[in-house]
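We both want to read discrete structure tokens more fluently, so let's practise on a single case. Once you have written the record down, we can walk along the chain together.
***
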Amino acid sequence: MRTIAKMARKLSPLSFSYPHHRWVAGVIGLLIIIALLNEFVKPRVFPKRFGVVIEESLFRSGRIHHSLLPKVLSENKIDTIVTLTHEVRTKEYQARERTIAREMGVDLVRFPLDGNGTGNIASYIGALKYVYDELGKDRRVLVHCAAGTERTGGFMFFYQTLVLNHNGKDAYDEMRQYQFDPERNPDLLPYLENTLPDVVEALGAHGIKIGTLPKISNLAAVSL
């Protein structure tokens, strides 16, 4: 939205001679409408960045609108929600999520990370071990953050490469498919690389067999 507003100021119809100004105004108006629909309408129709990581077991998403959440939980038979957002008691959507989860008998646990996917590594480690244990009990888990891109992307990269032994490039390509952009967020990949030894050690101590470690430093260069 900020980008479109900047374009609108730069491409003000007053800066064009007739008949161009009406065409420019129409294009700007269309872009604004599309952005508004994507930001405020689409999340009420489709669950934000919802995806299946492991069939009938592990799912990912952004924050799902409260009008859609019961349907998503029911249709996918979710047993546990793992949220990677910080708790803010004054946020209405968090209160609604807690209420819906409680009424549906779904566990809701929180391992808070910062918006760019960095933060206390204990949250990543705790979430990884928790999800591993839940899946080991044949429970279905939904992992989400706000956008479903940075924090969820970082978590899934660790889980897919370290626990599921997926190829690092494939896991990174999935991050990109969910709109992760290393230029927009230059902090996440270095953070994942720097914290990798601590995560590997903690998961190994938890009894998780770790395969080949991903080479994170060159992922942005060799992937999408």
Observations:
- The longest strand covers residues 51-54.
